Amino acid sequence: MADPARVPREALEAFLARVFMALRVPETDARNVAYLMAEADALGHDTHGVFRLRQYVNRLRDGGCNPVARISVVSETSATALIDGDNGLGHLAMRHACGLAMEKAQVAGIGWVGIRGGNHAGPAALYVRPQAEAKMIGLCAAVGSANHVAPFGGTDILLGTNPIAIGAPSGGPDPFVLDMATTVAAMGKIKTLAQRGEKMPEGWMVGRDGKPLTDPAKRDDGFLLPIGGAKGYGLSLAIGLLAGVLNGAAFGSNVVDFTKDTQSATNTGQFVAAIDIGALVGVAAFESACRTVFAELRASAPLPGHDPVRIPGEGRGGYLADAAEHGVKIHAALRKELDAIAGEIGVAAL
Predict the structure, then answer these.
(1) pTM for the complete prediction?
(2) Secondary structure class of 166 (helix, strand, coil)
(3) Quick check: 105 pLDDT over 70?
(4) Torsion-angle region of residue 135: left (phi > 0), alpha (psi -120 to 50) or beta?
(5) Are 174 and 188 in a shared domain?
(6) Does residue 179 share a domain with residue 322?
(7) 110-118 and 80-84 beta bridge pairing
(8) Model confidence at 1: pLDDT above 80
(9) What average pLDDT does range 179-187 have in this prediction?
(10) Neighbour tally for 238: CB within 10 Å
(11) Are 233 and 322 members of one domain?
């Protein structure tokens, strides 16, 4: 594959906002979503950033997503809240939940905000980095926007990739950020490989006959495998309870495949939480301990053939700086899709 082209981030955000506004999304909302999508790519989460524009466009165009959503608080206590995203672009509800959780943590020591009526919102990392930058612990999880996983030992596809993210200040330049699916690979990675015409490794998916699938174009012929077998299945189920059932959102057979069904509301469930470190051990002590532990981990001699040990989230600040200086990476296949979208809805191309 040729090296991806670089696009100035400002130009990328402006293009994304143009697309959303052409589909009746208010300007402020369009710009907020555009910022978060570009931020995802700038951070290296390109499978969950601009790549997802086609899915968002199709749902806005066909009525499956509300362009003029009004987020509302369903219930609230000093430390918790349940909000309804009004079937709008998922980034808007998640952004609101992140800010509200942090406000509550400043008062109560912890803030937990559940979401129903949401939609796909990009990488979970976007909604735990703000807490870490504010010297808090951030947590975020979601019911996947389509079911791609069978229960451990079964063949019926009833679960999603159900991602979870945890962020924390590290005492160094980059916060600790763990962002992972509960499957061996996220479906977004597989779709990205399909768009680029690349194969996927064995162990990511199997067919209903139990044999490995390596052609991402045939992903509908099988299902994703959970991390760690039964443990990944259990973790996915637990996230479904916390992000879906607890919020009155979809889970199990009620989940709508937001790519294949572009007309139905998904009622996607998520949660965002914030913990005030100062209410417990204190920020200085926490960061000092992190520096010590992370230094020990980095000093561990790597196995033959392995890169040196890294900490989750390490180096992402460098990604942001590189994107700011040289532009955001856009692969040729994605650029072709963005040009097609621009032509379809009648806005200036990127």
Answers:
(1) 0.93
(2) strand
(3) yes
(4) left
(5) no
(6) yes
(7) parallel
(8) no
(9) 91
(10) 14
(11) yes
**Containing structural domain, residue 205:** 184-225
Q: How far apart are CA 160 and CA 183, in angstroms?
A: 9
Q: What is the CATH number of the domain that holds 205?
A: 3.30.60.50
CA of residue 179 relative to chain centroid, distance? 8
Distances (CA, A) of 290 to 33, 110, 165, 203, 312: 32, 21, 18, 33, 12
In a domain, 307, yes or no: no
Question: CA-CA-CA-CA torsion for 297, 298, 301, 306, nearest 10 degrees?
Answer: 110
pLDDT of 253 above 70: yes
| Cα 16 from chain centre | 18
Q: In CATH, what number is assigned to the domain containing residue 90?
A: 3.30.1370.60
Residues 105, 207 within the same domain: no
- Those residues whose C-beta lies under 8 Å from the C-beta of residue 335, and which sit 6 or more positions away, are 5, 350
Asked whether residue 206 falls in the same domain as residue 247, the answer is no
Residue 298 in any domain: the answer is: no
328 assigned to some structural domain: yes
What proportions of the chain, in percent to the nearest 5, are helix, strand and coil? Answer: 45, 20, 40
Residue-wise pLDDT for 127-158, tens only, equals: 999 999 999 999 999 999 999 999 998 889 99
292 strand-pairing partners: none
256 and 209 within one domain: no
Please, are residues 144 and 135 in contact by the beta-carbon 8 Å criterion?
no
- For residue 14, is pLDDT > 70? yes
Q: What is the pLDDT of residue 219?
A: 87
Question: What is the Cα–Cα distance from 183 to 204, expressed in whole angstroms?
Answer: 8
Sign of the alpha-carbon dihedral angle for 7, 93, 180, 255: negative
**pLDDT digit string (tens) for 49-96?**
999 999 999 999 999 999 999 999 999 999 999 999 999 999 999 999
Do 267 and 209 share a structural domain? no
Residues 137 and 258 in one domain: yes
304 falls within a domain: no
Q: How many CA atoms lie within 13 A of 344 on its CB side?
A: 13
DSSP assignments along 45-90, one per residue: -TTTTGGGHHHHHHHHHHTSS-TT---EEEEE-SSEEEEE-TT--H
Q: Which of 344, 268, 240, 218 is nearest to 88 (CA)?
A: 268
Domain count, the chain: 2
